[in-house]
Amino acid sequence: MLSIFSNITSSRTNFKLPLKHHTTLQLKSKLLILPNELLAEICENLLPQDLFSLSSVCKELRNILWSDKSIITQQIWRNSRHKFYPSLKSPPLIGMSEQQYLWLTVLAKKCQFCDESDVNLLKKYWEFQIICCETCLNKRMESHHTLLTKYNIPEDVLSTCLCLGDKGYLLSNIKTAQIEYSKAMDKDNWVTHKQLEVIAQKCRIISILLDEFHSDHKPMINFDFINENGSE
Which domain holds residue 92? Predict the structure, then answer.
């Protein structure tokens, strides 16, 4: 539907714009003058894949469709998820936006760090909210023992981060936790709050994994709007 948006490139030449580029600019201008409520109603009827393509058209649309703080943005992606991926019933992880959730669940097709695209080498790690190959993951992890003995990370800090069994912790998560811990006025209260958050996060991960087990991640699409000739 929105495939024309996926390969948009800018040009400073004086040549006439290609038809697809011209069509995209027309659609962009029409979308941006719509009230937010109407734009949301239109967008939430698009596949997540199309929403992502649309958010790549221009800065203005990206600000609208990729904001993790906008209630309207989150509503758009949530309603799209419910409509096209009804088996994904669980809410996003704590601190994760709807678009990040859908990206990790159904849109991401390559390693976040090296662009490896072989599906046999990729894996989602909900504990760390990433998709990557094992090589890149191992470069970014350290064991519990090493963090305690070599880097002198307090046990309290480690207890506030999700780990991947014996493999250990994602270093970027440990760094973030360290900074927050050092700034906390009431460290005991901070640790308790973060430990409860870890428990809640584990429960959500289990729920998401169950959704994934029962889903093939193929979008539910109603083709009633397609006429007998196969065009919209």
Answer: 19-107
